[in-house]
Amino acid sequence: MKKSTNKNEKIKIQKTYLALKIQIFFFVLLIIAVIGLLIPLRPKESTVEKRELEKFPAFTVASFLDGSYFNQISTWYADTFPFRETLLSANSSIKNLYGIQGEQIVSKSGKTGDEIPEGGVMVTDTDETKGSETKGSGETAESGETGTAQTEQTETQEETLPDGTIHTVPEVSGDVYVSGDRAFGIYYFDREGANAYINMIDKAQKRLDGIADVYTILAPTSVGVSLDENAQEKIGSSDQKKSIEYIYSNINNMNSKVKTVDIFDTLKKHNSEYIYFRTDHHWTALGAYYAYQQFCAAKGITATPIDTYEKVEFPNFVGSFYASSGQAASLKSNPDTVIAYKPTSTNDMMYVDKNLQEIQWRVIFDVSDYQSGVKYSTFVAGDEIYAKIDNPTLTDGSACVVIKESYGNAFIPFLVDHYQHVYIVDYRYFYKYPQYGNSVYRLVTENNVKDVIFVNNADAMTNKSQINSMSAMFD
């Protein structure tokens, strides 16, 4: 009888404990639901992902009837949940207790880059033969030499530098690949994008022929400079050196007046230095400086020694790769430092914001108090519609236009001391600025600009629609 009583008591205790757990569980859910409904706590943008979060959808009868309105509310609710990034970071930390997840070292999407044509001859979808079967390949190589001769001469004068090439195949983490405390994004060669860029540069030069010189600087990304060929092949990344050679050789073969600035070998030789961020997809100011040196060689001017500039540092930068990695702990615990070099002539500039207001700013802005994910915006106000820098130490009327995406931001400060006026165009947003009607031709001719400089990273050359946006500026 006593055993039966003890058994009943244990069952009763278990039921009470279970009921208590259920109550606690639902109480926690209720608290979370209440927090989720607190509009003032909901974030409007993500500093880690560098984007605006979903806005509460506008009601329409059509979206209500087809059910999409409620799906949009669900997306808004999840995307703007209070303390969203703190929760994501905690989730990542728990996952990283188990190390990088054991996924195969291949492109997660199954995507592959297009085959890079051999011989340097442009290949389109309608071609039936490869350019390597024609005599044009030899002519292309010869024409390409003229555009890079000064660059090669500069490089041969440098002493042998340490090799910083990484031979370990990185492992997939989120949407990027991680090796130790460094992340890499895969590069996919896109033949249509490459051909569109070649034709766009040719079009720009011919439109500006006799008015301004056209320079093109294609910046490789870290995966092509830091990883060896075997590691790149294992993760499915295309060869950026061959990709850039394909683009440049075709530009030079099509239009010898374009000044192609080849910086791949220069960056490769300096790959033991801090020329790319570990947690972000951009190059550092030092990487951009080496590109600036090659631009000066191509233009025939003397580059300012780097120790001439005032150097400023902004530590604790954790960039785009960190967000894309699923917030990998190895990146968070090894933040970057954004190093910038102030122009010697002026640090003042103006940019046009999204409301078309002219804002007075700084070429190198103090971002010490900025959140960790946005410190790269120290350079020329980040990605704005349009900007202008006036150098008060020059009165010779010299002017250039820089057409760029975000890679150009770290490059531009080095140009300031060489021109009285530097005009900055972000081709992704310039169409919003009514003053020039999306016409770089008007900007150039109305301001007596003599140099038009394209500065873009290799990934930008895979987006045909964005390249078409650049082309439209020369209609």
Task: State the gist of this model.
Helix content is 38%, strand content 15%. It is an alpha/beta fold and 475 residues long. It has an eight-stranded mixed beta sheet, sandwiched between helices. A three-stranded antiparallel beta sheet has the order 3-4-5. A two-stranded antiparallel sheet has the order 1-2.
Protein model, in words:
It is a single chain. This protein has 475 residues and is α/β, with parallel strands linked by helices. 38% of the residues lie in helices and 15% in strands. It contains 16 helices and 15 strands. It has an eight-stranded mixed β-sheet, with helices on both faces. A three-stranded antiparallel β-sheet has the order 3-4-5. A hairpin with a 5-residue loop joins strand 10 and strand 11. Mean pLDDT is 83; it is low at 88-108 and 128-157.
User: Roughly how many Å is the radius of gyration?
Assistant: 27 Å
Outline the low-pLDDT stretches: 88-108, 128-157
Mean pLDDT score, rounded?
Answer: 83
Give the strand line-up of the largest sheet.
Answer: 7-6-15-13-14-12-10-11
Class computed from helices, strands and strand pairing: alpha/beta
Please give the count of helices. Answer: 16
